[in-house]
Protein backbone atom coordinates (compact mmCIF):
# COMPACT_ATOMS: atom_id res chain seq x y z
CA UNK A 1 0.00 0.00 0.00
CA UNK A 2 1.66 3.26 -1.12
CA UNK A 3 0.83 6.94 -1.43
CA UNK A 4 3.17 9.88 -1.89
CA UNK A 5 4.22 9.47 1.76
CA UNK A 6 2.90 6.46 3.59
CA UNK A 7 4.21 2.95 3.01
CA UNK A 8 2.78 -0.05 4.88
CA UNK A 9 5.10 -3.08 4.94
CA UNK A 10 3.61 -6.39 6.17
CA UNK A 11 5.73 -8.22 8.75
CA UNK A 12 3.86 -11.53 8.91
CA UNK A 13 1.80 -13.64 6.55
CA UNK A 14 -1.47 -13.08 8.47
CA UNK A 15 -0.86 -10.25 10.94
CA UNK A 16 1.40 -7.25 11.51
CA UNK A 17 2.84 -4.36 9.50
CA UNK A 18 5.38 -1.54 9.86
CA UNK A 19 4.29 1.99 8.93
CA UNK A 20 6.95 3.98 7.09
CA UNK A 21 7.19 7.70 6.29
CA UNK A 22 4.88 8.92 9.05
CA UNK A 23 6.02 11.25 11.84
CA UNK A 24 3.29 11.20 14.46
CA UNK A 25 4.40 14.63 15.70
CA UNK A 26 3.16 16.14 12.44
CA UNK A 27 -0.42 16.79 11.43
CA UNK A 28 -1.98 13.72 9.83
CA UNK A 29 -3.90 14.47 6.63
CA UNK A 30 -7.37 13.00 6.04
CA UNK A 31 -5.87 10.69 3.41
CA UNK A 32 -3.21 9.44 5.83
CA UNK A 33 -5.82 9.08 8.54
CA UNK A 34 -7.84 6.73 6.32
CA UNK A 35 -4.74 4.77 5.29
CA UNK A 36 -3.72 4.19 8.91
CA UNK A 37 -7.21 3.16 9.97
CA UNK A 38 -7.40 0.72 7.08
CA UNK A 39 -3.93 -0.63 7.85
CA UNK A 40 -4.92 -1.42 11.44
CA UNK A 41 -8.12 -3.16 10.32
CA UNK A 42 -6.23 -5.17 7.70
CA UNK A 43 -3.05 -6.03 9.64
CA UNK A 44 -4.46 -5.95 13.21
CA UNK A 45 -1.22 -4.65 14.76
CA UNK A 46 0.95 -1.91 13.24
CA UNK A 47 4.28 -0.43 14.31
CA UNK A 48 5.59 3.12 14.04
CA UNK A 49 9.36 3.13 14.53
CA UNK A 50 11.70 5.96 15.55
CA UNK A 51 9.00 8.19 17.04
CA UNK A 52 9.66 10.78 19.75
CA UNK A 53 6.34 11.08 21.56
CA UNK A 54 5.35 12.85 24.73
CA UNK A 55 2.16 11.71 26.43
CA UNK A 56 -0.04 14.31 24.72
CA UNK A 57 1.32 13.38 21.29
CA UNK A 58 0.68 9.69 21.89
CA UNK A 59 -2.90 10.47 22.86
CA UNK A 60 -3.42 12.48 19.66
CA UNK A 61 -1.94 9.65 17.58
CA UNK A 62 -4.14 7.07 19.30
CA UNK A 63 -7.27 9.08 18.49
CA UNK A 64 -6.66 8.27 14.83
CA UNK A 65 -8.02 4.80 15.58
CA UNK A 66 -10.88 5.55 17.95
CA UNK A 67 -12.07 7.63 20.91
CA UNK A 68 -9.84 7.45 23.97
CA UNK A 69 -11.11 5.40 26.90
CA UNK A 70 -10.35 5.58 30.61
CA UNK A 71 -8.63 2.27 31.27
CA UNK A 72 -9.26 -0.04 34.20
CA UNK A 73 -6.41 -2.51 33.84
CA UNK A 74 -3.89 -3.24 36.57
CA UNK A 75 -1.38 -0.46 35.79
CA UNK A 76 -0.90 2.93 37.45
CA UNK A 77 -2.09 6.19 35.90
CA UNK A 78 0.74 8.78 35.77
CA UNK A 79 -0.33 12.27 36.87
CA UNK A 80 -3.78 10.86 37.58
CA UNK A 81 -4.66 10.73 33.87
CA UNK A 82 -7.28 7.95 33.49
CA UNK A 83 -6.50 7.61 29.77
CA UNK A 84 -2.78 6.87 30.26
CA UNK A 85 -1.08 3.96 32.00
CA UNK A 86 2.55 3.40 32.95
CA UNK A 87 3.70 -0.17 32.27
CA UNK A 88 6.84 -0.43 34.43
CA UNK A 89 8.73 -3.54 35.51
CA UNK A 90 11.97 -3.79 37.48
CA UNK A 91 13.45 -5.83 40.32
CA UNK A 92 10.70 -4.60 42.64
CA UNK A 93 7.85 -4.96 40.14
CA UNK A 94 8.12 -8.24 38.23
CA UNK A 95 5.72 -8.85 35.33
CA UNK A 96 2.52 -10.52 36.56
CA UNK A 97 0.15 -12.29 34.21
CA UNK A 98 1.20 -10.56 30.98
CA UNK A 99 2.85 -13.72 29.62
CA UNK A 100 -0.54 -15.45 29.50
CA UNK A 101 -2.40 -15.01 26.23
CA UNK A 102 -5.24 -12.49 26.44
CA UNK A 103 -7.23 -9.69 24.88
CA UNK A 104 -7.47 -6.67 27.15
CA UNK A 105 -10.48 -6.24 29.42
CA UNK A 106 -12.75 -8.81 27.80
CA UNK A 107 -14.41 -8.94 31.24
CA UNK A 108 -16.00 -5.56 30.46
CA UNK A 109 -19.46 -5.35 28.91
CA UNK A 110 -17.91 -3.24 26.13
CA UNK A 111 -14.19 -4.12 25.86
CA UNK A 112 -11.77 -1.62 24.33
CA UNK A 113 -11.29 -1.53 20.58
CA UNK A 114 -7.53 -1.30 20.80
CA UNK A 115 -4.40 0.00 22.45
CA UNK A 116 -1.29 2.01 21.68
CA UNK A 117 1.91 1.13 23.53
CA UNK A 118 5.02 3.33 23.34
CA UNK A 119 8.47 2.02 24.30
CA UNK A 120 10.32 4.39 26.63
CA UNK A 121 12.95 2.02 28.05
CA UNK A 122 13.43 -1.58 26.97
CA UNK A 123 16.05 -4.23 27.76
CA UNK A 124 18.12 -5.04 24.70
CA UNK A 125 16.90 -8.18 22.99
CA UNK A 126 14.37 -9.03 25.70
CA UNK A 127 10.72 -8.45 26.53
CA UNK A 128 9.28 -9.12 23.07
CA UNK A 129 5.51 -8.98 22.59
CA UNK A 130 3.70 -11.55 20.44
CA UNK A 131 0.31 -10.98 18.84
CA UNK A 132 -1.96 -13.69 17.46
CA UNK A 133 -4.73 -13.14 14.92
CA UNK A 134 -8.14 -14.34 16.04
CA UNK A 135 -9.50 -14.09 12.50
CA UNK A 136 -6.73 -16.46 11.40
CA UNK A 137 -7.65 -18.80 14.25
CA UNK A 138 -11.30 -18.74 13.13
CA UNK A 139 -10.33 -19.34 9.49
CA UNK A 140 -8.35 -22.43 10.55
CA UNK A 141 -11.46 -24.13 11.98
CA UNK A 142 -13.46 -26.73 10.07
CA UNK A 143 -16.87 -25.72 8.79
CA UNK A 144 -18.46 -28.08 11.29
CA UNK A 145 -16.63 -26.53 14.24
CA UNK A 146 -17.52 -23.02 13.04
CA UNK A 147 -21.19 -23.99 12.95
CA UNK A 148 -21.04 -25.62 16.38
CA UNK A 149 -19.37 -22.60 18.02
CA UNK A 150 -21.39 -19.92 16.26
CA UNK A 151 -24.28 -19.62 18.72
CA UNK A 152 -22.35 -20.32 21.92
CA UNK A 153 -21.48 -17.75 24.57
CA UNK A 154 -18.71 -17.79 27.20
CA UNK A 155 -18.25 -16.11 30.56
CA UNK A 156 -15.38 -13.64 31.09
CA UNK A 157 -14.18 -12.44 34.50
CA UNK A 158 -11.28 -10.21 35.59
CA UNK A 159 -11.10 -12.15 38.87
CA UNK A 160 -9.87 -15.42 37.34
CA UNK A 161 -6.14 -14.82 37.70
CA UNK A 162 -4.27 -14.45 40.98
CA UNK A 163 -2.09 -11.69 39.49
CA UNK A 164 -5.02 -9.35 38.84
CA UNK A 165 -6.54 -9.96 42.26
CA UNK A 166 -3.21 -9.35 43.97
CA UNK A 167 -2.60 -6.04 42.20
CA UNK A 168 -6.08 -4.69 42.95
CA UNK A 169 -6.00 -5.91 46.54
CA UNK A 170 -2.71 -4.10 47.18
CA UNK A 171 -4.54 -0.84 46.45
CA UNK A 172 -6.77 -1.46 49.45
CA UNK A 173 -9.59 -3.73 50.50
CA UNK A 174 -12.26 -1.12 49.76
CA UNK A 175 -10.93 -0.59 46.22
CA UNK A 176 -10.87 -4.35 45.68
CA UNK A 177 -14.44 -4.82 46.89
CA UNK A 178 -15.70 -1.89 44.78
CA UNK A 179 -13.89 -3.17 41.69
CA UNK A 180 -15.30 -6.66 42.16
CA UNK A 181 -18.88 -5.50 42.74
CA UNK A 182 -18.84 -3.06 39.81
CA UNK A 183 -17.33 -5.58 37.37
CA UNK A 184 -19.33 -8.82 37.60
CA UNK A 185 -18.68 -11.65 35.11
CA UNK A 186 -20.09 -11.06 31.62
CA UNK A 187 -21.15 -13.25 28.70
CA UNK A 188 -19.74 -12.71 25.21
CA UNK A 189 -20.18 -14.73 22.01
CA UNK A 190 -17.53 -17.37 21.42
CA UNK A 191 -17.49 -16.28 17.78
CA UNK A 192 -17.61 -12.51 17.30
CA UNK A 193 -18.00 -10.49 14.10
CA UNK A 194 -15.52 -7.64 13.78
CA UNK A 195 -17.47 -4.36 13.58
CA UNK A 196 -15.14 -2.80 10.99
CA UNK A 197 -13.91 -5.64 8.78
CA UNK A 198 -17.00 -7.85 9.07
CA UNK A 199 -14.72 -10.88 9.54
CA UNK A 200 -15.54 -13.55 12.10
CA UNK A 201 -13.08 -14.29 14.89
CA UNK A 202 -12.64 -16.44 17.97
CA UNK A 203 -13.39 -14.42 21.11
CA UNK A 204 -12.21 -16.45 24.11
CA UNK A 205 -8.90 -16.18 25.95
CA UNK A 206 -7.10 -18.15 28.64
CA UNK A 207 -6.73 -15.19 31.02
CA UNK A 208 -10.34 -14.06 31.36
CA UNK A 209 -12.63 -16.76 29.88
CA UNK A 210 -13.88 -19.20 32.53
CA UNK A 211 -16.35 -21.45 30.70
CA UNK A 212 -18.77 -21.85 27.82
CA UNK A 213 -22.38 -21.37 28.86
CA UNK A 214 -24.71 -24.38 28.73
CA UNK A 215 -22.06 -27.05 28.19
CA UNK A 216 -20.96 -29.76 30.62
CA UNK A 217 -17.78 -28.79 32.48
CA UNK A 218 -15.48 -31.28 30.72
CA UNK A 219 -16.84 -30.41 27.28
CA UNK A 220 -16.41 -26.69 27.94
CA UNK A 221 -12.87 -27.20 29.19
CA UNK A 222 -11.96 -29.37 26.20
CA UNK A 223 -13.25 -26.88 23.62
CA UNK A 224 -11.61 -23.93 25.33
CA UNK A 225 -8.26 -25.73 25.57
CA UNK A 226 -8.51 -26.58 21.86
CA UNK A 227 -9.18 -22.94 20.97
CA UNK A 228 -6.49 -21.63 23.33
CA UNK A 229 -4.01 -23.96 21.63
CA UNK A 230 -4.70 -22.43 18.22
CA UNK A 231 -3.77 -19.00 19.60
CA UNK A 232 -0.24 -20.26 20.27
CA UNK A 233 0.31 -21.53 16.73
CA UNK A 234 3.23 -19.62 15.13
CA UNK A 235 1.49 -19.33 11.76
CA UNK A 236 -1.15 -17.11 13.38
CA UNK A 237 1.36 -14.78 15.04
CA UNK A 238 3.77 -11.91 14.68
CA UNK A 239 6.58 -11.34 17.22
CA UNK A 240 7.86 -7.84 17.84
CA UNK A 241 11.25 -6.95 19.32
CA UNK A 242 10.91 -3.60 21.04
CA UNK A 243 13.18 -0.66 20.39
CA UNK A 244 12.90 2.59 22.28
CA UNK A 245 10.80 5.06 20.31
CA UNK A 246 8.50 2.45 18.73
CA UNK A 247 4.73 2.86 19.01
CA UNK A 248 2.67 -0.30 18.54
CA UNK A 249 -1.07 0.00 17.90
CA UNK A 250 -3.22 -3.11 17.97
CA UNK A 251 -6.80 -4.13 17.41
CA UNK A 252 -7.94 -5.62 20.72
CA UNK A 253 -11.00 -7.23 19.12
CA UNK A 254 -9.10 -9.10 16.42
CA UNK A 255 -5.98 -10.13 18.38
CA UNK A 256 -4.60 -11.61 21.54
CA UNK A 257 -1.12 -10.87 22.86
CA UNK A 258 1.49 -12.21 25.24
CA UNK A 259 4.71 -10.73 26.65
CA UNK A 260 7.91 -12.75 26.78
CA UNK A 261 8.87 -12.08 30.40
CA UNK A 262 12.56 -12.96 30.03
CA UNK A 263 13.76 -9.52 31.14
CA UNK A 264 13.26 -9.63 34.92
CA UNK A 265 14.85 -7.98 36.93
CA UNK A 266 15.88 -5.48 34.22
CA UNK A 267 14.02 -2.19 33.87
CA UNK A 268 11.30 -1.96 31.21
CA UNK A 269 8.96 1.01 30.76
CA UNK A 270 6.19 1.56 28.24
CA UNK A 271 3.32 4.04 28.05
CA UNK A 272 -0.14 2.75 27.22
CA UNK A 273 -3.26 4.48 25.86
CA UNK A 274 -6.55 2.69 25.14
CA UNK A 275 -9.24 3.49 22.57
CA UNK A 276 -12.81 2.35 21.97
CA UNK A 277 -15.27 2.36 19.12
CA UNK A 278 -15.95 -1.35 18.59
CA UNK A 279 -19.13 -1.56 20.65
CA UNK A 280 -20.43 -4.55 22.56
CA UNK A 281 -19.36 -7.97 21.25
CA UNK A 282 -21.82 -9.45 18.77
From TrEMBL:
GO molecular function, one term: metal ion binding
The keyword Hydrolase appears for this protein: no
InterPro entries the record matches: AtsK-like, TauD-like_sf, TauD/TfdA-like
Every TauD/TfdA-like domain range: 9-274
SUPFAM superfamilies, per the entry: Clavaminate synthase-like
Entry's family note: Belongs to the TfdA dioxygenase family.
Record protein name field: TauD/TfdA-like domain-containing protein
Lineage: unclassified sequences, metagenomes, ecological metagenomes
Amino acid sequence: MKTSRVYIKPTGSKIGAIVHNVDLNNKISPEEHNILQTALTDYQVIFFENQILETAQQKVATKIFGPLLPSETFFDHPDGDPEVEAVINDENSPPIGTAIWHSDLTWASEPPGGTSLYALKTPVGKGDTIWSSMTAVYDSLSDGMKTYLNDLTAVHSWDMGFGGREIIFKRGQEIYVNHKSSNPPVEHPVIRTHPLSGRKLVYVNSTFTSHIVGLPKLESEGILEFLFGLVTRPENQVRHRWQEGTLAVWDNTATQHSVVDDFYPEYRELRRVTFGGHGKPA
